[in-house]
Amino acid sequence: MTRHAACGSGSHFLARRQLLGGLLGAVTTAGRFAPVGQAELAAELEHSNRQMLIIFLDGAVSQLESWDPKDATDTGGPFQSISTSRPGVAVSELLPYTAKQLHHLLLVRGINTKENNHAKGKYLMTKGRRQEPSTDYPDLGAVTSRLIADPRGKLPGFVHLEDGRRAAGKPTASGRDAAYLGPRYGSLVIGDCRPPKHTERLAGLSAESDRLRRLFRRRLNDRFARRGNAATRAFAASFEQAEQLMLNRQVFDVTREPAADHRRYGTHGFAQNCLLARRLLEQGVTCVKVVHTNYDTHNENFNHHLEQLGEFDRPFATLIEDLAEREILKRTLVVVMSEFGRTPKINSKFGRDHWSKAWSLALAGCGIQAPGVFGRTNDNGTEVVEHEVDHRQLFHTFLRAVGADTRRHFDVNGRPIPVADPAAAPIAEILS
């Protein structure tokens, strides 16, 4: 069965000139961004190597066919719940591989975000706030990169692995999800599991000529820097980061992973992105985001979830198993989320519509209490009856789990903007 996304979006690729332009914009405005307690933060995170993996199930996965099954009820649908490696916790039978990894997962089953629009719901979950006319907020990955990535790192702090089925759309530039943090902290978007385009040395330029050219540029930069030229420093910083991307482009080459691992994960796009995500986390990328799309199931919900979760289940479970065995999970927070859930009521087209009143997500890894379940919905999944939480609390929690202090604020051109919504707080019960 082949489906097309309800809301198409292009795959994004980064050209070197885009990187240079974006980084220049970030550096030239850097003086307008007061450090977020830079000295204190550096001291706090000096020995920290925490990371984040975000898996976004775009279109809104059904909680009833995944994390919070309600079989044998009027809303449950045809699939049964199955036992898992976590005693007393069940998931849908569409997740048999993931069920074996539930001892690593915490299921948050009490989410109520009160927003049933796709774009607005995605904004809530990825930015932690509602949209405002006056301010665009940065993505969770950009904030994570800004707060905990090593500024001396040779790799981008935030890499976004797009769903390959979007490749037919018009490509857009990387880095536009960082808002006032500047493109330096925005995502490097990869849409085909290959190293970024335009990051190879030109065929007609020898390695020695390239080295001499870069040496000459640095000498000129150093000469002008002594005069306090901000523009020169900006260009120098952006060129240095672009050079590091070129020198480390093999990090993004998933074909370098063993053939046996490709077979274990699978060969379709999401599977390869999961394998690449493992590679990037091993190499030290601070935040990796993987998108799996086509969950907007207003029609034939059950057939489509059979297909979509069939793609998701094995690669995701393999990734969690590998991260645990390689001890990467100890330092990495894994977040599996959507923009909202799907209606308990089944519509006339055997689909489920938008439902933000009572839905679920899954967490694993660092900063999170012992796996299990937090929150509960009623018997047919229409309301949260225990430990209700929203997007604001979750955003705080994600950042706290990786060691970021969400009580701080960014100073944007003299205007203080809190890292996370100050009217909310982390979910203390699930933080370790």
Description of the molecule:
This protein has a single domain, classed as 3-Layer(aba) Sandwich (Alkaline Phosphatase, subunit A), CATH 3.40.720. The chain is built from eleven helices and 17 strands. It is 32% helix and 16% strand. The protein has an eight-stranded mixed beta sheet with strand order 7-6-8-2-9-12-5-13, sandwiched between helices. It has a three-stranded antiparallel beta sheet with strand order 1-16-17, with no helix packed on it. A two-stranded antiparallel sheet has the order 3-4. The chain has 432 residues and is of the alpha/beta class.
CATH architecture grouping: 3-Layer(aba) Sandwich
Task: Fill in the CATH topology.
Answer: Alkaline Phosphatase, subunit A
- CATH class call: Alpha Beta
Task: Tell me the count of domains.
Answer: 1
Oligomer: single chain
C-alpha geometry: globular
Overall pLDDT confidence: 86
Q: Helicity, in percent?
A: 25-40%
Strand order of the largest sheet: 7-6-8-2-9-12-5-13
Q: How is the main sheet built?
A: 8 strands, mixed
Radius of gyration: 22 Å
Poorly predicted residue ranges: 1-37, 39-47, 167-173
Counting DSSP E segments of at least 2 residues, the number of strands comes to 17
Which structural class should the secondary elements be placed in? alpha/beta
